[in-house]
Amino acid sequence: MRTLYLIMCFGMIFPFVLDAQIKGTVVDESGMPLESTNIVLLNKGNHTHSYGTASDEKGRFTMELRIYKDTTVILGFSHIGYKEKSYEIKLSKGLVDIGKVTLSKTVTELGEVTVSAPRTITQIDKQILFPQKYIIKNSTDAFDLLNHMMLSGLQVNIVQKTITKSGGNVAVYINDKLASKADLLSLQPDEVLRVEYIDAPGVQYADDNVEAVVNLVMKRRYSGVVTGINTTNAVTTGNGNNTIYSKYNYKLSEFSLQYDMDYGKVKDRYINQEDHYMLQDGTDILINRMGINTKLKYMQNNVELTYNLSKPQKYIFETKLTGTFYDSPDRGHKQYVTETNKTAYYSLTNPTEKFHRPVIDMFYRHYLRNNQTITANIVGTYIDTKNGQSYQEYTNDSLKVPFNSYKYYTKGKKYSLISEARYSKKFEKLSLLIGIKHSQAHTRNEYTGTSDAVNQMTTADSYFYSQLSCTNQKFNYVLGLGGNRQYYRQDSEKYNYWLLRPSLSLSYTISNNISLKYGFYITPEIPSLGSLSNVSQQANDWDIRTGNPQLKPYSTMTNYIKFVYKPNRIDIENTIRYSYSHKPIMESISRIVDDSGHSLFEFGYDNQKRLDVLSNYTSLKYSLIPDKLILQGDLTLSRIISKGNDYCHLLNYAQGGIMADLYLGHMSIGGGYKSRDKRLSGETAYRGMDYSIMYAYYHLKNITVGLNWSYLFLSPKDHETTMNKYVTKQTWVNVPDYKNMLSISLSINLNRGRVYESKGNVLQNSDTDSGVFKY
Predict the structure, then answer these.
(1) pLDDT tens for residues 200-209?
(2) Is 753 exposed, middle or buried (0-12, 13-18, 19+ CB in 10 A)?
(3) Distance CA 281, CA 329 (A)
(4) Mapping DSSP to helix (H, G, I), strand (E, B) and coil, where does residue 36 land?
(5) Which positions ≥6 away from 367 have C-beta within 8 Å?
(6) What's the whole-model pTM score?
């Protein structure tokens, strides 16, 4: 009786809660589906965003929510280039199908309500972000756009045009196709519909060795032409990035040509070193190398020619020819050297590097019925490399006739073929992904100099993967399972390595602005082709650099927990991550004695015991003045334990940063500071450069002019420390030329007759490992 009474009381106090689902299809006036339409559920009283989603490639959408029965809500629809529309819906039953929603071109406001997308939609495998109009208006390319969006953990250098996360690589896609640097520089921000951010890449990216994935979903082009330039060049030193591009669309075809040139020419640069060797007989050798300003020069040219043939919801075919040409004739450094038991002398270390890399990339995707797709990609690469390394000692600073010299040269050729096929199927609440990827390569390197050798290697890597995703109202999960088979052969040395690669992601939405996520995955780490070389080269009187053909692949297991809290105008995120590597490939330093009794120190690699990395990342983004002044800060605390077969080292460090953006009509002003990154691997600890920047950009129609001031009041310096029981080394790389570096950016975009509809490659494979052994 008491139980019945309580049920009646709760029934009178609380209205009946309904698990509702709203679905429909968004089309244009001709009946064609509109992909990436932003659909927002608004509370009628105060128009606060409660839920949001986006339409798929067939214009369909589904929105699930828990709400009181008989509640009336407003559903808003917005799509760039189309008039916004809203519906009032009374939710009296579990499923409401509103049918087709037709949007007409030209954007206007909705009378009482102006619909805009929510800042972020958090899904099980990614975050979907809708760039605000003021960010799009004040961005010139993809680097600029991502810098203004301040994605959690992402570090964007708008001068050097780089994107990293936790010191690792970030893969940036455009319409699911891996983008080149030239693609990102030629991107038009006003064509971006949404940004998908994956900070824990799933099985389809697990073989790419990336820390994060960004996918920029663009409007599709039917016809028209666009031509432009995007340049950033320093005026205080030699440093620049320059891109020229042109794209032409006609019906189902797109032709594009892009040229990208990066260069550096630094005059004020020097390297200081302190080395301490303990010889076999107990004698200590101290070497102090004082750096002398030495120029640095390099240039890279990249040309891309692309043809794309696409019929919406039918097929996509794309072929791309790419040529990359790199030359660095001046990379050396001079030093004044004092050494135990020797007269002071001068040294010149002079590495050189030159390569060219032609690539052909062919892609096909076919759309099947019932939300099914089949995708295939094949990439052929040839890499021709010419490297040199020399170390010479002189009695005076004229550096004319050396009294001691070590040299070697390398000619390398590598041929590789990478192929991948993928099948995907979407159900109402589930999605299935199955794929296979195989790469085959042959490398031949010829070494001449201190020791002559010809090194030939054959490698193969097969990767099978599958993934099942389930999306519910509160609880979502992704299950992944992959398998790797890696093969390597060099002379009589060879191995077959198999690895099972499970992955799991669980997320729970606690409330509209609070979510919790857990993830687990295993990734393989394979030795570089250069480290597998059976070649040894002497660098100076004391150091020998050697490869190790007996290296074996290893696996890294990662667990993480992420907490996200997004109240009004504030985004807070905290991620705890732990990675464990079993028998990782890390540094190995040993002391040997040659036939004459002279001690030498051999630097190579071996499979060591373990590597543990524990980190806590916290970020906060605050819209101090909405649409005007945005602030962001982050802090990373890390603990790294490197345990070798005969050593153990520990590194604790903190890294933080702050950033601010101010938007004033046609002008945007911003700045930031990031403390140096630190890493530990084997017996060597690395400390990067502190970085600071201020920038101001003025935007007028299709022209943008900007000033960038980098490394403000800082002395750019890298520091590296080796801590072996026989030898310790400290190296400081100083680049005063970069201090207070001022650069000018110019972007000009000319377009004519642009009508949109096109889609890109969802698979992209590449090969950049030349296989050359270097020190």
Answers:
(1) 777 777 666 7
(2) exposed
(3) 41
(4) coil
(5) 313, 314, 315, 373
(6) 0.77
